[in-house]
Write a structure and sequence with these properties.
6 strands; Peptide Methionine Sulfoxide Reductase, Chain A; six-stranded mixed β-sheet
Length: 167
């Protein structure tokens, strides 16, 4: 009997094209849904994000969060944070508590305060088909070379055991 083990987490940081490409590159990630996520309260508006479906036996939630924090400006509270919210959207109270603990433990890796919020997932709107898998379809476009390729280089430099062989 082949049991399929899968969990999910939603992540927002910079452009969802970048976030999508980073997480599509990882072993244990089964699917990356690119789009817009909304939470509640001050975060009720939609912000660019991805939902990452992963096998926790192959890649941990902690590793995914570590990669997320190091591949976007998780300490910069710039003027575009409404569109590019630095956030982890969670699907349960247990996941919320785990992510809060992990964020606190990862703070020591950064010189500045992490601004990444942990928010309850409320709703998802997928991106239009034309922009899904953007990097995979357009790796030589200037945007990809300028913004996405450096993030993928971070993966290869610091997280090589988790990167799929095709990258």
């Amino acid at each position: 009997m082949d049991l399929k083990v899968e969990d999910k987490i939603a992540l927002g940081g910079g452009c969802h094209w970048c976030t999508e490409a980073v997480f599509q590159s990882l072993k244990g990630v089964r699917l990356v849904e690119q789009g817009y996520v909304a939470s509640v309260g001050d975060a009720a508006s939609f912000s660019e994000a991805v939902i990452v479906h992963f096998n926790p036996l192959e890649i941990s939630e902690a590793t995914l969060l570590d990669i997320h924090l190091h591949t976007h400006n998780s300490t910069s509270n710039h003027s575009r944070r409404e569109t590019y919210r630095s956030a982890v959207y969670v699907f349960s109270n247990e996941q919320y508590n785990r992510i809060i603990d992990l964020l606190n433990s990862f703070q020591t890796d950064f010189n500045f305060q992490l601004i990444t919020k942990v928010l309850p997932f409320r709703e998802f709107k997928p991106s239009r088909e034309a922009i899904k898998n953007y990097y995979l379809k357009n790796p030589k476009k200037p945007f990809c070379e300028r913004y996405i390729s450096p993030k993928l280089e971070i993966l290869l430099e610091h997280y090589a055991p988790y990167v799929k062989a095709s990258n």
